Amino acid sequence: MASLLAFPLLTLVLLHSVAISTRADLPGTWDLLVANAGIASMHTAVTRFNTVVLLDRTNIGPSRKMLSRGHCRNDPNDAVLKHDCYAHSVLFDPNTNQIRPLMILTDTWCSSGQFLPDGTLLQTGGDLDGVRKIRKFHPCDAAGSCDWVELDDVELTDGRWYATNQILPDGSVIIVGGRGANTVEYYPPRNGVVELKFLADVEDTQMDNLYPYVHLLPNGHLFIFANNKAVSYDHVTDNVAREYPPLDGGPRNYPSAGSSAMLALEGDYSTAVIVVCGGAQYGAFIQKSTETPAHGSCGRIVATSPDPVWEMEDMPFGRIMGDMVMLPTGEVLVINGAQAGTQGFELASDPCLYPLLYRPDQPVGLRFMTLNPGTVPRMYHSTANLLPDGRVLIAGSNPHYFYKFNAEFPTELRLEAFSPEYLGPDRANLRPVIEEVPEAVRYGERFDVLVSVPLSVVGIMEVNLGSAPFATHSFSQGQRLIKLAVTPSVPDGDARYKISCVAPPNGIVAPPGYYMAFAVNQGVPSVARWVHLVS
Fold it and tell me: Which member of 43, 147, 459, 529 has the lowest number of beta carbons within 10 Å of its beta carbon?
C-alpha cells in the first residue's frame, strides 16, 4: 500500500522537476529592479538621458510616493483628494534604480504622447480637467530637477481620451482619435480638427476604435488601424488615400486590444510591414466576461504593396493587452497581458506570463519562440519599453479603479527588467561597445561608428536606430527601427573596428529626433548611444 501511495507522489515530483527544467531552459532572464516605484505606470517613455518617465493618472487617490515638500496639487473637483500631496508621475534612473517624484497637475488618465525633435516629451489629453490639456516634459540628466510643464497658451481642439500620437516627417505630431473624437488634429496646431470618418465607421457597440494603431509609412502616409480595418491616410491633404482589406479574427483595438508593430525599415526603405497580434473576442467587454478566451491570431501585411493581403499565423498563446517591443536586432518581443477577458477594470483573467520572440525572417509557423516566463502578472495598464542597454523595462499593471493591493491581481508597483537571450553570458564576447559615434547626423550623411569587440568580427556588423516610443495600453506610439546602410567593418587597431554608415535619407523614413544607435554583431546589440537626427 505504501508503495502505491508513493507512486503518485513520485510522479508529482518528477512532473515538478520537468516543469522547473523546462522553464530554466527557455531563453531570457528576469530581474527585479525596484520593489516599490511609488506609482503604477500606465504610460512609460525612455528619455535621451537614459531616464524613464513613469506616469499614472491624477484622480486615483493616494499613491505610494510623496511629492517634494511644499508641492501639492489642489483640485476642488477631485472626488478623492482635493489636497493631493502624492506623486502620480516619477522619474526612474535605471543606472541607479533611484526614483524621483514628478508633479502632474491635470488628469492624464488614458492619455497619449510622443517625443518632439528636440527630445521634449509631448503629452496630450486624458480625462476630466486633462481632456484638452497639452503638457511637456523637458528631460534632463538624472541629477537634474526637470518636471512636467502644463501649457496654458494652447490646448487641444477636441477632447482626447484614448487617442494615439505619431511624429511626422516635419517634426510635428498628429493626434488621432479618442473617445467621442473621430477626428485628427496636430501639434503645433494647424486649422483645428479634421474629421476622420473611418474611425466612426469602424466603431461598434463596444467601441473597439480607441487607441488606434498608427504607423508612419516610408511613402509618407499613415497606416491607421482600428477595430479590424485599416486605411492609408495622407496627412498633408488630410484624406484617406486607400483602404486595406479587413483583418480576420475579431476586434483588435481598445477595449479588445492586442498590439501592433511596424517591422524594421531596411534596404532602400521602400517597404513597410505591419504586424497586428492578439485581441479579445467581440462581446467580452459588453458582457464583462473575464473568462472568454483571447484569440492568438496575428495578421501581417506589406502596407506599401500595390495589392496588400493579410498573411495569418498563430501565437502559441491567446493574448490580450500584450506589448510588442522592437528589439535592436529587428526581432519583436511580445510580453505582458492576459489569456482571457478584455481590457477594462477587473475584466481579465489568466495572466500570460510567457513572453514570445517574433522572428520576422522565419517562415510562417516558425516565427514565434516561447521565452522564460515571469512571475508577476502584468494585466491592464502595464507597459514595456526598450532600454538603451538592450533590456526591456516592465512596469505597471493596475486592473482596479483605485490602488488595490489585496486582490488576485493587485496594483503592481514593482519594476522589472527582461533580458533577451542576446544578453546572456555565453554571448558576452560578441557584444560590441560603441567607442565613437557622432552626437548629431543629418539626413543622408555618411558617418563612421567606431566599435570594439572582444572576439574577431565575422560578417557584417549592423548599425540600427531605434526610436523611444510612448508606451500605453498595449501600443508603443511612435515606435520605429531603422537599419542603416553600412559597409563591412574595417579593423582600426586592437579589437576595434570602423563601420561606415549612411543616415536615413529623410524624415519620412525617420522623423527628426533622438534615436538609440545600436551596433549589432551576430545578433548581439551594444549599449546604445543617443544620436540626434536633424534636417
Answer: 459
Q: Which residue, among 202, 219, 216, 108, has the nearest Cα to 166 in the 3D structure?
A: 216
Least confident of 9-23, 77-91, 159-173, 419-433: 9-23
Q: Which residues pair with 369 in a beta bridge?
A: 357
Instruction: Identify which has the larger pLDDT, 494 or 177.
Output: 177
What 8-state DSSP symbol labels residue 289?
-
The 8-class DSSP code of residue 461 comes to: P
- SS3 annotation, 99-119: EEEECCCCCCCCCEEEECCCC
Flag whether pLDDT at 5 surpasses 90.
Answer: no
The residues facing 323 across adjacent strands are 335
Alpha helices in 367-420 (DSSP H): none
Question: CA 283, 285, 288: angle at the middle one, nearest 5?
Answer: 105
pLDDT for residue 270 is more than 90: yes
Strand order through the sheet with 368-370: 323-326, 332-335, 356-358, 368-370
Q: Is the pLDDT confidence value at 443 over 60?
A: yes
Kindly state the cell numbers that stand for 105.
497637475
Task: Check: CB of residue 409 under 8 Å from CB of residue 69.
Answer: no
pLDDT tens string 100-150 = 999 999 999 999 999 999 999 999 999 999 999 999 999 999 999 999 999
Quick one: cell of 457?
A: 568580427
Strand ranges in 5-50 using DSSP code E only, listed in sequence order: 29-34, 43-46
Prediction pTM value? 0.95
Task: In whole angstroms, give the CA distance from residue 403 to residue 499.
Answer: 50
Average pLDDT over residues 204-223: 98
Are 448 and 486 in contact, with CB atoms under 8 Å apart?
A: no
What is the H or E stretch that residue 243 is in? strand 239-243
- Cβ atoms 377, 36 nearer than 8 A: no
Q: Which residues pair with 332 in a beta bridge?
A: 326, 358
CA distance 357 to 484: 23
Is 213:276 a contact under the CB 8 Å cutoff?
yes
The DSSP bridge partners found for residue 124 are 112, 134
